[in-house]
Design goal:
The protein has 278 residues and is an alpha/beta fold. The chain is 36% helix and 19% strand. It folds into 2 domains: 131 residues, Leucine Dehydrogenase, chain A, domain 1 (Rossmann fold, 3-Layer(aba) Sandwich), CATH 3.40.50.10860; 132 residues, Rossmann fold, CATH 3.40.50. Helix 1 crosses helix 8. The protein is globular. The two termini are 24 Å apart. Bound molecules: 2'-monophosphoadenosine-5'-diphosphate (ATR). 2'-monophosphoadenosine-5'-diphosphate binds next to helix 5.
């Protein structure tokens, strides 16, 4: 569909943002759904998120994704927050509702959907371990607790940050040391360990075993050292592309009111990664 005067615009604000997969994923979704929408990446410097949101309002932009370093600082520019975004103090998607710009956090729901749709895994009653205590980890910790996990063990390089993050899981939140990974049904790596240029596994590989599902939120490279170590130990291990696609699907639905065309979004993301974009 070519761009016309009627084309509606959505985009992502971030820095760095030029390698973002979001334009690929969302434009594939708009095309598949036959919607006259387009999605672009806006390079917005640290501190400029409120100005970018004001600009988006003035320009009539209908949806924004929000990535580093704006997930917290963008809050002040919004009219309202979803309950999840309020609890996390962070936003990764902004939807226009009438004249209001409403902040949402779809990362946690994205993980829960990726677990359910792609792996057939429900956190209810399960022991879950989350490595990391940053923004991504916090969204995951809250979502796993809300999905009924029996316990959510938070393991982090800096224990003080783990203490704060574990509060999000309420009574099922536990701060732990790495050896507790042995007891977990689900392990989520929410640290940048294993990213391109950072090749140390997130945790001691001897702690993995079969009967475990390991999700590394890192998706570039697709096969991280953590995934390789977990698979070598017999665990089922996957990367972060599923969560990325499913959080985008939630944003798509918030913006358009339609169900997201997941297979087209997934295929576009995988093709882009295979061609070296990320
Ligand atoms: P994001 O928003 O993507 O989650 P973040 O907020 O910067 O990123 O959080 C990064 C998380 O990964 C933190 O938990 C950080 O640990 P600290 O609390 O000690 O800073 C963790 N982290 C970053 N680099 C790491 C590394 N090389 N090994 C282990 N943990 C790391």
């Amino acid at each position: 569909m070519s761009t016309t005067g009627a084309t509606r615009v959505a985009g992502v604000i971030g820095d760095p943002v030029r390698h973002s997969l979001s334009p690929v994923i969302h434009n594939a979704a708009f095309a598949e759904a036959g919607l006259d929408w387009t999605f672009v990446a806006f390079e917005v410097l640290d501190g400029d998120a409120p100005g970018a949101v004001a600009g988006a309002r003035a320009l009539g932009i209908d949806g924004l994704s929000v990535t580093m370093p704006h997930k917290a600082t963008v809050l002040e520019a919004l009219d309202r927050l979803s309950p999840t975004a309020t609890k996390l103090g962070a936003v990764n998607a902004i939807a226009r509702e009438g004249t209001e710009f409403v902040g949402h956090s779809t990362d946690g729901a994205g993980l829960i959907d990726a677990l359910a749709f792609d792996e057939g895994f429900a956190p209810e009653g399960k022991t879950c371990a989350v490595i990391g205590a940053g923004g991504a980890a916090r969204a995951v910790i809250l979502a796993l607790a809300d999905a009924g996990a029996n316990s959510v063990i938070v393991i982090n390089r800096t224990p003080a940050n783990a203490e704060i993050a574990a509060l999000l899981a309420g009574r099922v939140g536990v701060v732990g040391t790495e050896d507790l990974v042995r007891d977990a049904d689900l392990i989520v790596n929410a640290t940048p360990a294993g990213m391109i240029g950072n090749d140390t596994p997130a945790i001691d590989p001897t702690l993995f075993h079969s009967n475990q599902l390991v999700v590394d939120l890192v998706y570039a490279p697709p096969l991280t050292s953590t995934i390789q170590a977990a698979r070598a130990a017999g665990a089922h291990a996957v990367g972060g592309l599923g969560m990325l696609v499913h959080q985008a699907a939630h944003a798509f639905t918030l913006w358009t009111g339609q169900e997201a065309p997941l297979p087209a979004m997934s295929a576009a993301a995988m093709a882009a990664l295979a061609h070296g974009r990320r």
